[in-house]
Design a protein that fits this description.
4 helices, single chain, mainly alpha, transport, 112 residues
């Protein structure tokens, strides 16, 4: 497997923090509310820092794709489950394609 197991843990944590900052940014009302704005900025910094550490041993293409994919799927899930956004069949298919891409990127980095 390319990259250390710890790098993958950092990458997943970075992706999870991306979900939090995306949700907090939505709740900040365009950075007009202090607490959600502070959470957004803090989790953004932590997410980028963990991504940077993971990239020490993971390829850029893999790390960035997995990070954005986790964030995209997580934000989609939070949007549907917490914010009541649409879960139409087309959106669900799109989400499934993103997950498929993340899995393929992970598999391809293991064989590279």
């Amino acid at each position: 497997m390319k990259g250390s197991p710890l790098a993958w843990i950092y990458l997943v944590l970075a992706g999870l923090l991306e979900i939090i900052w995306a949700f907090s940014m939505k709740k900040s009302m365009g950075f007009t509310l202090l607490i959600p704005s502070a959470i957004t900025i803090g989790t953004m910094i932590a997410s980028f820092a963990l991504l940077a550490v993971a990239m020490r041993s993971l390829p850029l293409s893999t790390a960035y794709t997995v990070w954005t994919g986790i964030g995209a799927i997580g934000a989609f899930t939070v949007g549907v489950l917490v914010l009541g956004e649409s879960a139409s069949p087309t959106r669900l298919i799109a989400a499934a394609l993103i997950v498929s891409g993340i899995v393929l990127m992970k598999i391809s980095s293991s064989t590279a």
